[in-house]
Write a structure and sequence with these properties.
With 427 residues, this protein is an alpha+beta fold. It has a domain at 69-360: 3-Layer(aba) Sandwich (Beta-lactamase), CATH 3.40.710.10. Helix content is 31%, strand content 17%. Strand 2 (36-43) and strand 3 (46-57) form a beta hairpin. It is globular and about 60 Å long. This is CRE-LACT-5 protein. InterPro entries: Beta-lactam-related, Beta-lactam/transpept-like, Beta-lactamase/esterase. It holds the Pfam family Beta-lactamase. It comes from Caenorhabditis remanei (Caenorhabditis vulgaris).
């Protein structure tokens, strides 16, 4: 009889949070994780959980290591949102500014009143680019991409509904960012030069966990060829896991109807990149990844994602005034006509309610990726996996939910832990 291979699990946890490691292991032993994953939690500036396990390449049983990085998919949007918040903080941009203030040619065909915030909050009316299937040349040619966007007509009247700009968010924000930034950098270049290489040293030096200190924040948007040997290979999960996921959360079936509707927004959005294939494992293609698309194809580690959002929480990257603008959602939940359920999306972030009903900001990524920062509890949770989940993202992912619930259960055991009052939202 063939002996079952033991799943490698590594990393450290604070004593109070030791049960999180057990939950992380169970995700693998119970068959919820079919490839590899990493999970990092920071509480009040201290790393309390830092775990990784499984396989970076399941086909050849290449183990997920401490320095393994993975495709973060739409968690890239949270990175982009932070870069935009820095421009706002520096007085170079206001969320309420019309895009034409920086990009006059954008205002053609009914786009003249679209604001930066509409683009960031997915209400700009451009959830896909009608009639466009990008060639590789167009994706890497800034002038061609600009021309295509300038001549587009919105799919619906801007500002009238929310429809997740899954891919188009990246093309739009990068073009705007280049025009606002004084050095005309892409989001990826700005992040590398203004954040990644400036703010890492010593961030984890005061905690007692045995963590290797990296020279920069290990997140990359484009220009990442030198990181390929560390990158986890995406793995499409089998039908048996799909059945388990649906049994866990029946609302997945409703979301699937939106995702697979041939006349829906999602199908139209996928056609913008149809030359690369229809499955998300197409992001194993290094040619596609080399294009710095700040909506979907960043790569990094869970530790780096947590680390970045810690720099927002502790005031390193943003002033108090700017942080006040982004830390909580200002509007009520809106139904998303791309995804098929109500969500809170503003300033480039998605906002969630924690198990303790406090607000979190961050972003989910397809396949099970997640980063969330809980302002009231000074807590950040980040999870990455290369085993693509059918459920997609948000609160429908069993593996992340199990870990987050356990973290918050452990959090309540900290002496004198007090639950902050829930934050109200203005209508």
């Amino acid at each position: 009889m063939k002996q079952k291979r033991e799943i490698p699990i590594h990393g450290t946890t604070d004593n109070i949070f030791s049960e999180v490691r057990d939950s992380f292991r169970r995700n693998f032993t119970e068959g919820w994780e079919k490839a590899g994953a990493s999970f990092c939690v920071i509480h009040k500036g201290k790393v309390i959980v830092d775990l990784w396990g499984g396989y970076a390449d399941r086909e050849c049983f290449k183990e997920w290591k401490e320095d393994t990085i993975s495709t973060i998919f739409s968690c890239t949007k949270s990175v982009t949102a932070i870069c935009f918040a820095i421009l706002v903080d520096r007085g170079q941009l206001d969320y309420s500014d019309k895009v034409i203030k920086y990009w006059p040619e954008f205002g053609q065909n009914g786009k003249q009143d679209i604001t930066v915030e509409m683009v960031l909050s997915h209400t700009a009316g451009l959830p896909y680019f009608p009639g466009v299937t990008f060639s590789e040349d167009e994706l890497i040619d800034n002038n061609k991409l600009s021309y295509i966007i300038e001549n587009l007509k919105p799919v619906y009247t801007p500002g009238t509904r929310t429809a997740y700009h899954a891919l188009t968010f990246g093309w739009l924000t990068d073009q705007i960012f280049r025009r606002v930034d004084s050095a005309h950098r892409t989001v990826g270049q700005f992040f590398k030069e203004e954040i990644a290489t400036k703010h890492c040293e010593g961030l984890f030096s005061k905690n007692h966990l045995n963590i290797i200190l990296f020279s920069d924040i290990d997140i990359h948007i484009g220009e990442c060829a030198s990181e390929e040997n560390r990158l986890a290979r995406l793995f499409k999960c089998p039908p048996t896991l799909v059945s388990r996921e649906v049994a866990y959360d029946r609302s997945i079936l409703k979301l699937a109807r939106y995702f697979y509707n041939p006349r829906g927004y999602f199908s139209a959005a996928r056609r913008n990149l149809s030359l690369y294939g229809t499955d998300f494992t197409m992001f194993n293609n290094s040619d596609l990844r080399a294009v710095g698309q700040p909506a979907v194809n960043g790569i990094g580690s869970a530790r780096a994602m947590a680390q970045l959002h810690q720099l927002v929480l502790d005031g390193t990257l943003l002033s108090k005034d700017t942080f006040e603008k982004i830390k909580y959602p200002r509007n009520m939940t809106a139904f998303d006509h791309m995804i098929g359920e109500p969500q809170n999306k503003e300033h480039g972030f998605t906002y969630f309610k924690s198990p303790l009903k406090t607000w979190q900001f961050g972003h989910p990524g397809v396949g099970g990726q997640m980063v969330r920062a809980d302002v009231d509890n000074e807590l950040i949770v980040a999870y990455l996996t290369n085993g693509m989940k059918t459920a997609g993202c948000e609160d429908h992912i069993f593996t992340f939910n199990r870990l987050q619930r356990k973290v918050y259960e452990c959090l309540k055991r900290i002496p004198k832990f007090e639950l902050p009052p829930p934050e109200e939202i203005d209508e």
